[in-house]
Amino acid sequence: MSMLLGTTITISSNHWMMAWTGLEINTLAIIPLISKSHHPRAIEAATKYFLAQAAASTLLLFSSMTNAWFTGQWDITQLTHPKSCLLLTTAVSIKLGLTPFHFWFPEVLQGSSMTTSLLLATLMKFPPTTLLVLTSQSLNPTLLTTMAIASAALGGWMGLNQTQIRKVLAFSSISHLGWMTAIMHYNPKLTLLTFYLYCLMTSAIFLALNTTKITNLATMMTAWTKIPPLTATLMLTLLSLAGLPPLTGFLPKWLIIQELTKQEMTPVATAIALLSLLGLFFYLRLAYCATITLPPNSSNHMKQWQTNKPVHIPTTTLISLSISLLPLSPMIFTTT
């Protein structure tokens, strides 16, 4: 309830102090969920999350106070002072985990449970993304583009050598944030569309992993014996998150590249399209491990007999949407 309250306060506020209050409520609400298991790894993750979010909230408050000092405006959409814009970009980048402020995000996700990781990767990113969208016309487009290319590069490069699924999805999140940031200044509605589709696909993957109890590549190789249909559709969802046509994940990348080309930013579009190939490699590796019947190497994890564990309706619904929404793209074109 506190997380929903904090998110609602931030996305519906016009005053910087109210937006900051909502972000603080969100931070204080998620920390008990991260540290719920009382494991040292979870406590470490909660501490890292608190320090990163506290620093970001301080910078955000300092940015709004600086803007109010010079312009007399506390309205979110009236952020006009250059130093305030720079401070706000830094603060929101820390909250989202954009490069070069990504250091905390993979570690926190790895130390959290699957359900908490899902909240961190989707719901907790909504308020900072909303603040970026509201102030997008005031922010420096060159800085945003640089951070976008760096995030796409680092998200793809660092995900290559990971064996823990949560860390792979963390670097996937950083890479997708790079795509959203690249188009932020030119088409904020497209940024929100990309964020919604990313949340849809990521939620489907996290719920499927939580159902099959997959945590790393070794357990993914032997998970096909538990719920074979779910594992097969998990492969398609991973490929959708990679952005392969004709799956849903291809739609936002297609629209972003098209919009960047319209804005005469073809080199940027080419760069992030090529950098997404790095991410495609580890998505393909995950999809391959999810569907092979025998691991290529000897596995320490025993194969389990097929279970009768039910797959919940939200999981199947999200997986279906994250695979098959591309035919609805003409309708999305007319709304955006």
Task: Give the topology, please.
Blueprint: H1 2-11, H2 16-34, H3 40-71, H4 82-96, H5 104-110, H6 114-121, H7 126-134, H8 141-158, H9 165-184, H10 188-212, H11 217-221, H12 228-242, H13 250-262, H14 266-291, H15 313-324, H16 329-335
Structural commentary:
Keywords: Electron transport, Membrane, Mitochondrion, Mitochondrion inner membrane, NAD, Respiratory chain, Translocase, Transmembrane, Transmembrane helix, Transport, Ubiquinone. Residues 280-333 form the NADH dehydrogenase subunit 2 C-terminal domain. With 336 residues, this protein is mainly alpha-helical. It has two domains: 1-113, no CATH class; 140-335, no CATH class. It has helices at 2-11, 16-34, 40-71, 82-96, 104-110, 114-121, 126-134, 141-158, 165-184, 188-212, 217-221, 228-242, 250-262, 266-291, 313-324, 329-335.
